């Protein structure tokens, strides 16, 4: 892979890891980010790198997208509303706009610029509550969140663009991604627990019944998998689950956070219910044989990934 | 089923059949249609029926949608861009707006009006070129048209609304629907052939290689299937293929049209290629066991349905 590469959402937790690795490889990298949840500090050290370019702008601003896309020959599209949670009272068009319409604007700009290679950050939330575990990529998509629904819509649109406009596309369905970099908004379970225990180390409110069990993957490993797949399967339309095959319970994450923070005797208070919030998929593990067969495998279990992320967040 | 029923796209080929049957059953029916491809003449005879209401308006006009939704307790959502074809040079946002965003506006209006029952006209185009034939509802969705992609996006959004807002939803993936009523725009293969042979009975241009083979279903049977399913499976989220299990080739349809029009020795000219146009799925038959198990089965084969439609179009 060589040439100029665009990373949308490149100031986010995963996007900035990706942009950093690409710059370290000597690639010319453009980052497009509106800094709504990404942070300038995540790309601060890249700003002076040769060939690095930062376009502060929104996917819904066609002018900004055109500016970012010009001269590029591969796009890693990670910009999106990062928060799966829908809290009653939230607007219901946030994901439609930032995921679905934003992705359409990008696809359209790519098409008109003759840019034919797109790697897309999708999500395991597209599956909803699967009847089959671990979930293979061929499972039906029955999303239960607006986030998952619009990501599924993006996937469908990308499938059509692949066919109609001869684009090579990679769709990556992420497990829960954790890492050192915490988002400006849209808390993950780890940063939520750390924040709460800092305020009051005697007790911890845990969303749901604590038995939710999901696959976790480090942002740095997620980035390695995307780089691997785009190089190893260079043409066509590909869909890959990215994660590890074991699940980790939310209660266990609480234990790990409390242990690392050195607080003992924390009283857990569960909000109750199977899922943590409306649209939460309480239990999932991904079948990752497709990406494994391509030569990539997660180096850490879910628990190892979460331990690593806790350590990284608390030591910065 | 009783109460007030809304049919979006109710002046279209399928929608007006549905509205007519509901009125004949004594239901109070509202039709919402922007008459972009539906025709006023399709609902002319319904306008005086007791409880019938016509709202001329667009799905993207929230005021019109709110007006149509008020007082309703079941929606059959058929309004959409009706044309699967994408011709290079066409706008690429037509399906995004009229299918995806229009469906979102409707879902949102329903949610805010406390309306919890939605039957949705989807399409077999969501599957794209399936590896498995006949195609079961559980097959992966890899649409190759913008039409199919945005219908898949609508399905995903409906799945999320079902879960988040306790809606009962029926998703119907239609085979190719044929019938007496011809659209104001967006030709079907039958009306295309009839038009061409009327202009010049000596030759007929056929898109593709003529070997495309698809499932056809009469609009009236499609309507019966929807009415059956919404009554027989009253709650939950359901996905049904609607069609018959045999396929019919485009070349055979040309023969049937020429035969019925009494023109002999027509020279067929094929534009070539597997599909008729970019985004055309050249061959498909649907696995209809789910709707069969619910007690409904198409009464006609594809050829019988097409013969019936040819007869109906030519005799009006």
Quick recap of the structure?
The structure is a homodimer of 316-residue chains. With 316 residues, the first copy, chain A, is an alpha/beta fold.
Please, could you describe this protein's structure?
The structure is a homodimer of 316-residue chains. Chain A is of the alpha/beta class. Chain A folds into two domains: 4-177 and 215-242, NAD(P)-binding Rossmann-like Domain (Rossmann fold, 3-Layer(aba) Sandwich), CATH 3.40.50; 186-214 and 246-284 and 300-314, UDP-galactose 4-epimerase, domain 1 (Alpha-Beta Complex). The first copy, chain A, has helices at 13-24, 62-69, 94-112, 146-164, 189-199, 219-232, 250-261, 289-293, 302-314; strands spanning 4-8, 28-33, 53-56, 74-77, 117-123, 168-174, 176-178, 203-206, 213-214, 216-218, 237-242, 248-249, 267-270. In chain A, the strands form four sheets. Chain A has a seven-stranded parallel beta sheet with strand order 3-2-1-4-5-6-11, with helices on both faces. A two-stranded parallel sheet of chain A has the order 7-10. In chain A, β4, α3 and β5 form a beta-alpha-beta unit. In chain A, α3 (94-112) runs parallel beside α4. The mean pLDDT of chain A is 95. At the A-B interface, α3 and α4 of A face α4 and α5 of B.
């Amino acid at each position: 892979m060589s040439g100029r590469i665009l990373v949308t959402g490149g100031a986010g937790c995963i996007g900035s890891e990706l942009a950093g690795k690409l710059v370290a490889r000597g690639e010319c990298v453009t980052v497009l980010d509106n800094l709504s949840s990404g942070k300038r500090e995540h790309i601060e050290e890249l700003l002076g790198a040769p060939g690095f370019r930062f376009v502060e702008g929104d996917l819904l601003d066609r002018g900004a997208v055109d500016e970012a896309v010009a001269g590029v020959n591969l796009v890693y599209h990670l910009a999106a509303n990062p928060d799966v949670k829908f809290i009653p009272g939230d607007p219901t068009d946030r994901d439609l706009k930032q995921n679905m319409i934003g992705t359409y604007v990008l696809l359209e700009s790519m098409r008109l610029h003759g840019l034919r290679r797109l790697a897309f950050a999708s999500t395991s939330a597209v599956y909803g509550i699967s009847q089959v575990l671990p979930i293979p990529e061929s499972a039906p998509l029955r999303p239960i969140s607006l986030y998952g629904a619009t990501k599924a819509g993006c996937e469908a649109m990308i499938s059509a663009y692949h066919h109609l406009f001869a684009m090579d596309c990679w769709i990556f369905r992420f497990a829960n991604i954790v890492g050192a970099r915490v988002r400006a908004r849209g808390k993950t379970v780890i940063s939520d627990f750390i924040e709460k225990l800092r305020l009051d180390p005697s007790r911890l409110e845990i969303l749901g019944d604590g038995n939710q069990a999901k696959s976790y993957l480090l942002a740095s490993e997620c980035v390695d998998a995307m780089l691997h797949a785009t190089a190893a399967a260079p043409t066509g339309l590909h869909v890959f689950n990215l994660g590890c095959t074991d699940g980790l319970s939310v209660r266990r994450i609480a234990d790990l956070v409390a242990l690392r923070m050195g607080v003992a005797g924390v009283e857990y208070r569960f909000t109750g219910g199977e899922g943590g919030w409306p649209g939460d998929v309480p239990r999932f593990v991904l079948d990752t044989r497709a990406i494994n067969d391509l030569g990539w495998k997660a180096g850490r279990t879910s628990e190892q990934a979460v331990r690593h992320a806790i350590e990284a967040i608390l030591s910065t």
